[in-house]
Amino acid sequence: MRVALLGGTGFVGTRLVERWLLGGGHDLHLVVRGPGSLARVARFQLPSWAACDIFDAQALAQSIRGCDAMVHAVVGDPDQIVIAARAALQACRLAGVKRLVYLSSASVHGQNPAPGTDDFTALRDDQPIEYNNAKVLAERALAGSTDVEVVILRPGIVYGPRSQWFTDLPRALRSGRAFLVDGGNGWCNHIYVDNLIQAIELGLVHPQATDKPFYVSDSTCLTWREFYRPVVEALGFGLDDMQNVAPAARPSRSVVGRHSARVKNSGAARMVLPLFSRRLKDAVKAGLQRYSAPEALNGFAIPRAGAPMPDWEISELHTCKTRLPMDRAVSLLGYAPEVDADEALARSARWLSGLWD
């Protein structure tokens, strides 16, 4: 199968390129936004690649013509997430690509889903975190396609060597700023990157993969304490070296955010917005974000001074009370994660400790 890969220079995409080119896989056609994006995968002899505006359905269709399927692993801001999903579906239609495997996120249910949440739980697009809302809107844009087979996968915390969950950890530990919210006793709904790629490969070929979205994860589910323990210990520290901090307060969506989302997704806006340049839209968006941004530190960043200050997203993750079920992926697709969490974390720890020795 000839497979177009969008987002091939991100964390998941780079690992998929490695696996398919080094270990064998489908015939890979990498689509990037510009040649400069290829720096991360330039060490491989790429069999086929193209550069185009992935938000332009016509240009994207030209770049993927002749492919049998597309894997969509693009990352971006909330606006880009929705636009890229719509463009990908339209491009597949125009190019005659039969199947689109879209990487959504378990965050469509929020970072701390209600008990009983599963693949069929109704989604909301009025969550405080715009990323979650964007993934919901992207899924809705892909739903109901009859001419392109759409597969939607919802991974949770995707980790492994080079992942954002570990790269800043050594510096945080050495500076005394590593932390767990409320002891990190909440569930970490995690999936090792190679297991996610296994689910992607099933999504490309399995006849039942188009049967509603699928949550996919590792075979076991750890708490955040358990998740971080092997990596922290491999660096010569212990969980006692991670500060225990209180959760952040729940934010409310700003008036600007609520109204702009409603306007952007109206029928009139979809016709008018393409007439404006991306530079103008980015400038307006930046102004709105600056106007409405709360004065809070991002939980993914390491504060320069004072005690660690988690944002609400990290707080919700660390205190998550729900272990999401992947029964449908197992029963319908035959998904059986090839790497268990202990081995996956050991691999991550070896990589990270090797960098910081």
Task: Provide keyphrases for this structure.
alpha/beta; two-stranded parallel sheet; 14 helices; globular
Write the layout of secondary structure elements.
Elements: E1 2-6, H1 11-23, E2 27-32, E3 49-51, H2 57-64, E4 69-72, H3 78-95, E5 99-103, H4 130-142, E6 149-155, E7 157-159, H5 164-167, H6 169-174, E8 179-181, E9 187-188, E10 190-192, H7 193-205, E11 214-216, E12 222-223, H8 224-234, E13 243-245, H9 255-264, H10 267-272, H11 278-292, H12 312-318, H13 327-333, H14 341-356
Parallel strand pairs: 1-2, 1-4, 2-3, 4-5, 5-6, 6-11, 7-10, 8-13
Antiparallel strand pairs: 9-12
Helix pairs in contact: 2-3, 3-4, 8-14
Would you write up a description of this structure?
By secondary structure, the chain is of the alpha/beta class. 41% of the residues lie in helices and 14% in strands. It has 14 helices and 13 strands. The strands form 4 sheets. A 7-stranded parallel beta sheet has the order 3-2-1-4-5-6-11, sandwiched between helices. The protein has a two-stranded parallel sheet with strand order 7-10. β5, α4 (130-142) and β6 form a beta-alpha-beta unit. α8 (224-234) packs parallel to α14 (341-356). The longest helix has 18 residues, at 78-95. The chain is globular and about 55 Å long.
How would you briefly describe this protein structure?
It comes from Variovorax dokdonensis. With 357 residues, the protein is of the alpha/beta class.
